[in-house]
Automatic annotation (TrEMBL):
NCBIfam families: Na_symport_sm. The chain crosses the membrane at residues 20-40, 52-73. Residues 10-85 form the Sodium symporter small subunit domain. Pfam families: DUF4212 (PF13937). It comes from the Bacteria. This is Sodium symporter small subunit domain-containing protein. Keywords: Membrane, Transmembrane, Transmembrane helix.
């Protein structure tokens, strides 16, 4: 991995950190927001026979986390290609 200059390296890490923070915010909203804060209103809705608030607390946040891992990998591959720091 080589960068032409320090500005390019800083831009790469700024975009990387911004991506991580966005994905963590999504996970926080799903796990804490839907699973804890909004559990009671969501429990009025049924999902495969389970209350939706319960489902988010037990399963939904895990599923979202797994999806976010794949999204992160795909977006980081694009970011690496953009800054020419791909691994061979």
């Amino acid at each position: 991995m080589s960068f032409e200059n320090q500005e390019r390296a800083s831009a790469y890490w700024r975009e990387n950190i911004a991506l991580v923070l966005k994905l963590l915010a999504i996970w926080f909203v799903v796990s804490f927001g839907f699973g804890i804060l909004l559990a009671e209103p969501l429990n009025e809705i049924r999902f495969f026979g389970f209350k939706l608030g319960f489902w988010f607390a037990q399963q939904g946040s895990i599923f979202v986390f797994v999806v976010l891992v794949f999204v992160y990998a795909k977006l980081m591959a694009k970011l690496d290609a953009k800054y020419n720091v791909t691994e061979d």
